[in-house]
Write a structure and sequence with these properties.
By secondary structure, this protein is of the alpha/beta class. The chain contains ten helices and six strands. The protein is 44% helix and 9% strand. The relative contact order is 0.12. The chain binds iron/sulfur cluster (SF4).
């Protein structure tokens, strides 16, 4: 997929999200928040759901939590424009309550399509609801700062998930804020490892493709071969009086 195609796919998803009525959260939202960022990024940040400021502006992580996320990114020399940021649910749960399982399920296809379009090398999860989509069955107090290969069923074809605390939680807890800086410091290394893994998989897939292609190629006649085929070793598909292969030239192009 080219960057332009990726951008178009993301804009198509955003247009659907803005008018979505698949779950009850559409009844209380001001604006849906599809997500935003660099369509050519290798890193996707996934939060839980929009808060009050995000609901008002229709953009993700624009309040104090967004400011802290920008600080975290700056600590590793990145800007929010370098990544793509979205949420598990695209509409604000009233009163900032946790999203309900049926709301998460209703919204999941949008995140899945965003992952398919972006094909990120790393998915950084922000908070426990996002983490549960990529690292089911773990607790964030133990899993923060750790990685796991994302299940391709999520839409991420070949991505490493890195669990991070939600910035809003870190703002309320100085220890968590300190740990958040330690956790995000791992991100550049995690990205390098994910890039290497993807490059090596792509090289293996290309080598396997080449090998299977050459195995199906019909051997061409050897121009150095004697003009009279050996009647004992010549393959039965060769006319003993000619070096022309029995497979017509137009079929050779099929291989
Ligand atoms: S949260 Fe998701 S599924 Fe629910 S209305 Fe908003 S966009 Fe649609």
């Amino acid at each position: 997929m080219t960057v332009a195609e990726r951008q178009a796919a993301l804009e198509g998803i955003a247009a659907e999200v803005r008018v979505c009525t698949r779950c009850r959260l559409h009844e209380t939202r001001t604006k849906a928040v599809p997500g935003e960022g660099n369509p050519d990024t290798e890193v996707l940040f996934v939060g839980e759901g929009p808060g009050m400021n995000e609901d008002r502006e229709g953009r993700p992580f624009v309040g104090r939590a967004g400011g802290f996320l920008v600080e975290l990114l700056a600590s590793i020399g990145w800007r929010r424009e370098d990544v793509f940021i979205t949420n598990v649910v695209k509409c604000r749960p009233p009163g900032n309550r946790d999203p309900e399982p049926d709301e998460i399920a209703a919204c999941a296809p949008y995140l899945q399509r965003q992952l398919e379009a972006l094909d990120p090398a790393v998915v950084a999860t922000l908070g426990r609801f996002s983490m549960a989509s990529f690292m089911p069955g773990v607790r964030i107090t133990q899993a923060h700062g750790t990685t796991r290969l994302a299940d391709p069923a999520t839409g991420a074809r070949d991505a490493t998930a890195l669990a991070l605390y939600h910035p809003a939680y870190a703002l309320r807890n100085p220890d968590v804020a300190r740990e958040s800086f330690e956790d995000i410091a791992r991100l550049p290394g995690v990205l390098t490892e994910a890039r290497d893994r993807r490059a090596s998989r792509a090289a293996s897939a290309a080598a396997a493709h080449d090998a299977s292609r050459s195995a199906t190629m019909t051997p061409m006649p050897d121009p150095e071969a004697p003009t009279t085929p050996d009647p004992v070793t010549a393959p039965p598909t060769m006319d003993a009086g000619s070096l022309e292969p029995a497979v017509p030239d137009d079929q050779l192009t099929l291989f």
